[in-house]
Amino acid sequence: MKTSSAPIKTTAADPSTWDPEERMSRDELEALQLTRLQHTLKYAYERVPLYTKKFDEAGVRPEDLKELADLRLFPYTTKEDLRQTYPFGMFAVPQDQVARIHASSGTTGRPTVVGYTRGDLDRWGTLVARSLRASGVKSSYKVHNAYGYGLFTGGLGAHFGAETLGCTVIPMSGGQTEKQIQLIRDFEPDTILCTPTYLLTIGDAMQKAGLDPRATSLKNAVLGAEPWTEEMRRELEVMFDIDACDIYGLSEVMGPGVAGECVETKDGAHIWEDHFRPEIIDPFDDTKVLGDGEHGELVFTSLTKEALPIIRYRTHDLTRLLPGTSRPSMRRMGRITGRNDDMIILRGVNLFPSQIEEIALRVPGLSPHFQLEITRPDRMDELTVKIERREDCTSEAAVAAAATLKKEIKIHIGSSCGIQVVEPGSLARSSGKLRRIYDLRKEQPQG
Ligand code: DLL
């Protein structure tokens, strides 16, 4: 059986094809970061009224940054800042220099709007191309892009990155799963780009139609836009007989391609530190910047962005910084456990959907299709894990699997929860970012 640590179909990129910055020493990289950071702080302070105000209120000036560690003197930027200045208040260039606009879906409140100059788009294309190349995509490959096109940065961001790398791009977008399957069969792509849960949806639909996902032309997948685990990587690699690598990003900082995983090590995404300076802070006490290896909230400062420079953006993503491996000078990010706004606090215990995914996928008979329902029947919060049994797991075996899952969750997370094993195919499927949490204390479930 394949394991997640060994490359299967694709091989490590040839270092002679790397960008020069990927070959820099750490000292050279930090010198570049310092120059770029000093420029960005001055640029943002002079051009974006919100930054002028924030820096003045905090009593700091761009010249106060003498070394990289001085970044901690500067104020944070939050999603709320982008909402307050909706739509274009944080843009640092006049509109005629803005080549593209994207926006977040804005499920709560106003969407956050981001802009790109022509130069920003070129750098974005280069970084997505770098991420894809690191993940084993070759310029000769056909790339099936199933990230959603439109205001979401996934579709167009991945598209231009794959074109920049020199690939043949199939701009399929998300959804229409049957058509996805048909195009994968007819066009025979080498690579698929989508969210991990959507790849699972596609694989599932293939199996239901009597097709073997392992028999497709696909060699690899570059997956992101939502948290996923090593267990899910293994599931997808075995299901499709592919290499699956991670790609990370967020619209406020650029879009996909802020960090990308190398196929030769599959040990977390390398942050492209020539363009972004990462920090980890204590999410509960933002005066504390944590050291490498410590878990906390990821914060980014852009180093080269023109239309929307962003200073110390609080991502709400929880992870840690690790030393570089296959790109020694660029630090890696650990897998994202979750977002602190996706954290379930169940009778005092913190819990993320990714922890359930990790545990559930180790229980034979249970599938990766699950959702978490939170209710409050008796003034006490209760969590129910609704999870599909696998096709080859009998109803009797499912009862034992449920008991195992309940016990493992209690041991590893410390929470007691209800388990409901449901029929294969009965839970909502993803066509992009999957919603895992259904908080029935506040709302009725959707989908
Ligand atoms: O999801 C950009 C993207 C598109 C990344 C395609 C990768 C591939 P947003 O819609 O702004 O942008 O959502 C950003 O998604 O703060 C994380 O919480 C989550 N996220 C993105 N990539 C990963 C990943 C895009 N690889 C938010 N692992 C981020 C875990 C991820 N979470």
From TrEMBL:
- Catalysed reaction(s)? 2-phenylacetate + ATP + CoA = phenylacetyl-CoA + AMP + diphosphate
Residue ranges of every copy of the AMP-dependent synthetase/ligase domain listed in the record: 92-300
Which processes are annotated in GO (biological process)?
phenylacetate catabolic process
Query: What is the enzyme's main class?
Result: ligase
Which Gene3D superfamilies is this protein grouped with? 3.30.300.30, N-terminal domain of ligase-like
Which intervals hold domain AMP-dependent ligase C-terminal? 348-441
Q: Which domain of life is it from?
A: Bacteria
Going by the UniProt record, its keywords in alphabetical order are: Ligase, Nucleotide-binding
- SUPFAM superfamilies attached to this UniProt entry: Acetyl-CoA synthetase-like
What EC number(s) has UniProt assigned to this enzyme?
Answer: 6.2.1.30
Q: Which InterPro entries match?
A: Adenylate-forming_Reductase, AMP-bd_C_sf, AMP-dep_Lig_C, AMP-dep_synth/lig_dom, ANL_N_sf, PA_CoA_lig_proteobact_actino, PA_CoA_ligase
Secretion signal span: none
Q: Which GO terms describe its molecular function?
A: nucleotide binding; phenylacetate-CoA ligase activity
Query: So, what pathway does this thing act in?
Result: Aromatic compound metabolism; phenylacetate degradation
Disordered: annotated segments: 1-23
Reply yes or no: does the keyword Ligase apply. Answer: yes
What Pfam families has UniProt attached to this entry? AMP-binding (PF00501), AMP-binding_C_2 (PF14535)
Role description: Catalyzes the activation of phenylacetic acid (PA) to phenylacetyl-CoA (PA-CoA).
- Identify its protein family: Belongs to the phenylacetyl-CoA ligase family.
Cross-referenced NCBIfam families, in alphabetical order? PA_CoA_ligase
Complex formation: Monomer.
Q: What is this protein called?
A: Phenylacetate-coenzyme A ligase
Organism field: Arthrobacter saudimassiliensis
